[in-house]
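Throughout this chapter, every protein is written as a compact record of paired, labelled lines. The reader may check this reading against the record printed directly beneath this paragraph:
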Amino acid sequence: MQLINEMKLEFMSKSNNEAFGRVVAAAFASQLDPTVEELADIKTAVSEAVTNAIIHGYENNPGIVKMVCRLYDTGIEIVISDEGKGIADVELARQPLYTSKPDMERSGMGFTVMESFMDSVDIASEPDKGTTVTMFKNIKS
């Protein structure tokens, strides 16, 4: 796998920045000439990861969401990270319908959605230190 290009972005943990992050990732991925479906998959997964950072990581408090995108000859790697609350049990959080915010009527499908739209999803988290979600999408050339 050969690295072609890389970009880094930081933005405030405000809900309206979810759309910003999604569009930036899709624009960067467009250098690989993905299909419309591949772009939609990337935007959906990024949206879920950024929303998780804002709602669960920072619990709607001020913070910084970081996004790193790397283009490879085979696809795109997207890393979304926060320095928020963290996840005590990542495997439990990955279970469909699990939510730590049932009072907010959250669906508990964020990680499941990411996993269904991306080819790989890795979650690293430590309580009170934050969470990093690394996703990869193969782009057919």
In short: The chain has a mean pLDDT of 90. Strands lie at 3-12, 64-72, 75-82, 120-126, 130-138. The first strand starts at residue 3 and ends at 12.
